[in-house]
User: Fold this.
Amino acid sequence: MAKHQVKSQDDDIETGEATTDAPSHLGEILPGEKIDYDPVFGEINKSGPNYRNIGWLGTIVLMMKTQIGLGVLAVPSIFESVGMIPGVLLICAVAGIATWTSYMVGVFKLKHPEVYGIDDAGGLMFGKIGRELFAAAFSLFMVFVAGSGILGISIGLNVISSHGTCTAVFVVVSAVIGFLLGSIRTLGRITWIAWVGLACIMFAILIVTAAVGVQDRPSSAPQDGHWVSDYKLIGEPSFIQGATAVSSLILACSATPAYFGIVAEMREPHYFTRSLIIAQIGSTLIYITIGVVVYYYCGSYIASPALGSAGPIIKKISYGISLPGLVATTTIFIHMQLPSKYVFVRLLRGSVHLTSNSLIHWANWLGCTFSVTVMAYLIASGIPFFDGLVSLIGALLGAFLAYQPTGCMWFYDNWSNRSNRTWTWIAMACWSAFIITVGSFITVAGTYGSIVSIIDLLGGDGGSKPWACADNSI
Assistant:
């Protein structure tokens, strides 16, 4: 292990370098302490990339951009399925659970500094089988989300250009953009993309929110005669509609699996909880506000993605402004843990090539980003339905990775204290068991509902088809 070095905090701010040798206690990095050795990335030196360089403000924006993007565009249509009041209650419930599951990621990382991704956590808890199971699930999750980001970009390009060319071309262009930006090596250098993307997606959705409030009716509503919004305070969804809505909300609120990689690259991981609370409160308030306002004025004529709800002109403007946000989402998910960074770290972990600028380093890195981009492109082309893809990701992979593992993490770290049970220990054990049970139910029920919905869309008349040239923004 490298010799311990201590510099002033001012030096760290000025140089932006991470230079401490080992976590002081259970992985905790104290203020003013620096590292030149990390349990995950190994020796950090000036000649290679600095992976430990995200501040707590940068962490907030990465968290918010990880959540706000694809999720916020689907929230208003969820209200149409379940109704406005159940929709708000569902958002609060799912966001509350997401806060706890994400908090457990930070706690687990501090106690086990050698953990980089959810596969490492699975390996600690369940051995080799757990490591490979969570690795495969996380890989699919990130690729699917990146695919939905590519699909969102292609929809935006179709809108702005008035379907200027074949949709398949726009999907390829979107994938190339994602590959180029996703190949930036460290999250610290991607933070600026997240800042720009978050600002753009928020500005775009606020424009739509304001526009639907002042316009006479949404663009897809009947344009002749008197029209009144047919919003529902309480809906009567079928089992499939309800399961699909909950699955979409889980994707919108639970970026938990991605937070392993974020906390791993923080300069001071003990600030993780502070960043998490701010990001979660902010994103939840945004979801509720936008969902209620847009659905109130549009009713059953809500578009999904929601940017198409306010007429052709506003639709072009909002998509034009939101494109950097959609690009940022795709970039982050192509880059982070599995899509690229996860496989890259796993391939080169323990090797000097991980933190160097060698040919082997670059060949592995670009090979990872390219492979992930190709898989995401195939998903975006093969499942060209925004709502269906979002709900499938949330049910099949989002709940499985966000709920069950974090409940198991609590048991892993606290089961040894069962002989000295307190009411707090019992309450947390019951809560963790509840999270595991809920996650298991949603994984099965939500996946079934999402698959049935996608099959219905594929069998319906009109609309998007896999690998087709038809306009996917209609």
